[in-house]
Amino acid sequence: MMTDSETTRLSVWVVEDNASYRENISELVRQTPALHCEHAFSSCEAALEELHRSAFPDIILMDIGLPGMSGIEGVQKVKAISPETRVVMLTVFDENDMIFRAICAGASGYLLKSESTDRIVSSLREVLSGGAPMNAQIARKVVDMFSRLAAPKGDYGLTSREREILQSLVDGLSKKVIADKLFLSFHTIDMHMRGIYTKLQVHSRSGAVAKALKENLL
Fold first, then answer.
1. What is the pLDDT of residues 37-69, one digit of tens each?
2. In this structure, which topology does domain 4-149 adopt according to CATH?
3. Predicted TM-score of the model (pTM)
4. CATH for the stretch 160-214
């Protein structure tokens, strides 16, 4: 018969293809009070199969560079099956693209395998209390990435009419069609387009469209 302390332990699964590292992390979880490593897998496919058979875990420690299905794809599938399960990426990768993709896929944290065992354990507790554990280096990269993504739209002083015409250019309309649509003369549209090019510091229709899309001007 299970004691109260055993029934309240939180479930952690490990998905890691390196057998030695998988066992070390699993044992670390087992030795941590209030946590229990119920399953350890060498692939995402095996973990996903178990998700359909067992009670959902509280946390999954997931490697990124797995054989077959990648950890990033695995995060997406886990969250689709069990949205409440927190997935922490535990990996050797600290490239911006990997970090961004993992977070967008639904990862609750991102730690390097070089982290100390104490840090890994504290991260498990952190994610269960609603935190998003990651080391300082990765946190700085995340802040930088999202700061760039959230950069305010450029203010080029476009008038409402110029924005309307620029939107029509982005939509692929010809000058004649734009003129008919806005009940303006071809000459007036041409004049507005020259003004748009000057303000955006481009020299062609394609340049204006590219800048509008790249900088989210509309």
1. 999 999 999 999 999 999 999 999 999 989 899
2. Rossmann fold (3.40.50)
3. 0.61
4. 1.10.10.10
